[in-house]
Amino acid sequence: MAQVSEExxxxxxxxxxxxAGAPGAGTPATPEFPGTAGAVPGRASATSEAGPAAxxxxxxxxxxxxxxxxxxxxxxxxxxxxxxxxxAAETSVVSGAAADASGAAAERAAGAAADTSATSGTxxxxxxxGAAAERAAxxxAAAEPGAPDTPAPPEDVKKASKAxxxxxxxxGVALLLGAAIIVSLLTVRYLFIGIIAIAIxxxxxxxxxxxxxxxxxxxxxxxxxxxxxxxxxxxWPFGREGALTAFVLTVLACLLWRLPGGAKGYLRDISASTxxxxxxxxxxxxxxxxxxxxxxxxxxxxxxxxxxxxxxxxYIAGVLGGKHPMAPAISPKKTWEGFAGSVIGGVVAGALTLxxxxxxxxxxxxxxGVAIVLTATLGDLVxxxxxxxxxxxxxxxxxxxxxxxxxxxxxxxxxxxxxxxLLSAFVPV
Length: 429
What we know:
Oligomer: single chain
Helix content: 55-70%
Largest sheet: 2 strands, antiparallel
């Protein structure tokens, strides 16, 4: 465009000394501007590739510079669109990014039209839109989807599994844990108490770590860990009296342990420590109390099979047909269809295990199954609410496909309390 402007200035200099806008001045014929001889004063005859241009309004004789500029602007407005704004019209179709270039081209085209009205020549003004059209054509070719430099669209992201977890890893871990529990029960059943103690200790570390990392809440780790192990192991020879006594001593130890830390956050930390001691080792102690009776293996299996059947039935029904959320604000994936599957699985498992393993009645097994479904679902919702409050997805990463130990204890812990209570009532020792 700079070359075109310089060429236009050279051509204007050749036309003569008299300004084109002077009153009564005509445009002499020149080789560069053919067909301009004898032009009527004040009229500009314009020809271009787009066709004849509209006549240029004549500024009144003796008018000032403003009137002449107004007449030139009117001429630019009457110029056909193909010659005046070809670059802007074509380039704007190409892409939004070319809008700036088309605006600049429109300004240059308007300036060229103004100069043309002053000199009554159209050769240079016709060349500028032609050059712009060539550039617009190049831009269009580059913007076409089939252009070589156009990057290929990204591949579609694989949809997440509807199961919401790594299913093969989850099944593998569940089988390993189940095998360890069955081996311990069928060999030396008191080894199951050791499995409970290890799981509670790891779960306490996970829970306290999340509280410390996310909310800056400091659980009294030493008292909760030591007192938790005391609750579980004292439940073996002394039953619930030993577990409750150890729990009370653990809370007293937490109160003393936190004293040197000062008043800031004291109540918050003590509340978290007491909750951790009750939710993990105290509830776990009721699972340990299922072991000592002579039919302890059957009691433990009845408890575990009931919880697993509830979780599995709810999981399968929820994945296959879950459409109505049960508590969307707490656990969006838990549905009423899944809950119905849990009820079916829990009732069937309770009726079979309690009648076959513990010589109970079927109706007792039905009640037991319903109670286990309710407590397992409650435990799952409670931990989901805790994790939502803390803003975490899982309590840990120890178990692939499951999260942490704490994420597997959510339905087991409250169900252990109800299992001990109901089995003690239905099948007294």
